[in-house]
Amino acid sequence: MSAALRTEGLGKAFTLHLQGGTHIPVLGGVDLAVHAGECVALWGPSGAGKSTLMRCLYGNYGAGAGRIMLRHRGADLDLATADPRQVIEVRRETLGYVSQFLRVIPRVATRDIVAEPLMARGMARDEALDRANALLRRLNLPERLHGLPPATFSGGEQQRVNLARGFAPFYPVLLLDEPTASLDAANRAVVLDLIREAKAAGAAIIGIFHDAEVREAVADRLFDVLPQQDAA
Ligand SMILES: Nc1ncnc2c1ncn2[C@@H]1O[C@H](COP(=O)(O)OP(=O)(O)OP(=O)(O)O)[C@@H](O)[C@H]1O
Fold first, then answer.
1. Is the pLDDT of residue 232 over 50?
2. 62-98 per-position pLDDT tens digit
3. 5 and 62 in contact (C-beta within 8 Å)?
4. What φ, ψ does residue 221 adopt, rounded to 5°?
5. How does pLDDT run across 102-120, given as a tens digit for each residue?
6. Does the Cβ of 45 fall within 6 Å of ligand 1?
7. Out of 24, 88, 122, 209, which could bridge 14 as a Cys pair, Cβ 3.0 to 4.6 Å?
8. What is the 3-state secondary structure (H, E, C) of the chain?
9. Nearest alpha-carbon partner for 100 in 193, 165, 177
10. Atom number, ligand 1, closest to the C-alpha of residue 48
11. CA-CA distance, 13 to 175, in Å (whole number)?
12. What Å distances lie between residue 117 and 63, 159, 167, CA to CA?
């Protein structure tokens, strides 16, 4: 069976235009393949490029080299060369991303932020809000907060809003950047269950998990991200 997501020779470097054009190679020759129902943990020292790889996979950073082949609508699509319209469609249907920090949309209530990706797929508003509230409850976010914009929420509360939004629809490929970093033990356990359920439903998951307990609980294998100076 073909991988849900695979990279071929993926490379990424940054050029610091304000620092005399300093060139920083971060990723080179990355060949990663993740299949349905498995969770791969990115592994490597601080600064190796794990978050950069995640952002390339989601299309937030353009790839400098190589291909990012995503199984989308039954065919392989190269995200490295996909046009913006395709990227929007891919993010709606196939590829989810729970980043470390919630990007707060001013004045939008928490339950609407969580329900939005469901409605984008055509779910009726009432049903989407029910699912949003249920997930927020499961993540122990107090009911009184569901109707408020999350701008003033604590770090852990915002992370749970982000998680509820990321797990609300089923994504065949899900990227998780430190999904439990700001959470207490009880909520960490809920997130582990959500990850296990997504895997059981067939999601291919790529994660950065600094917490060893979390990593050992959900990751099927590690993928080494090597600092470029070491890899050269
Ligand atoms: N937008 C950017 N512009 C310039 N350099 C960047 C940019 N983003 C990341 N880098 C550099 O790329 C390297 C890899 O950073 P990245 O955040 O991907 O590492 P990481 O493996 O996720 O680290 P950590 O485990 O500490 O979070 C670092 O040297 C960082 O300074």
1. no
2. 999 999 999 999 999 999 999 999 999 999 999 999 9
3. no
4. -160, 170
5. 877 789 999 999 999 999 9
6. no
7. 24
8. CCCCEEEEEEEEEEEEHHHCCEEEEEEEEECCEECCCCEEEEECCCCCCHHHHHHHHHCCCCCCEEEEEEEECCEEEECCCCCHHHHHHHHHHCEEEECCCCCCCCCCCHHHHHHHHHHHCCCCHHHHHHHHHHHHHHCCCCHHHCCCCHHHCCHHHHHHHHHHHHHCCCCCEEEEECCCCCCCHHHHHHHHHHHHHHHHCCCEEEEECCCHHHHHHHCCEEEECCCHHHHC
9. 177
10. 21
11. 21
12. 26, 17, 10
Which residue's CA lies nearest to atom 6 of ligand 1? 14
Dihedral in degrees, nearest 10, Cα atoms 167, 168, 169, 171: -10
Q: Whose CA is nearest to atom 1 of ligand 1?
A: 14
Give the closest residue to 231 by CA, choosing from 32, 70, 1, 48. Answer: 48
pTM over 0.90: yes
Q: How many alpha carbons fall within 13 Å on the CB side of residue 98? A: 31
Nearest residue by C-alpha to atom 9 in ligand 1? 52
Which amino acid is present at 154? Answer: S
- Half-sphere exposure of residue 73: CA atoms within 13 angstroms, side-chain side: 9
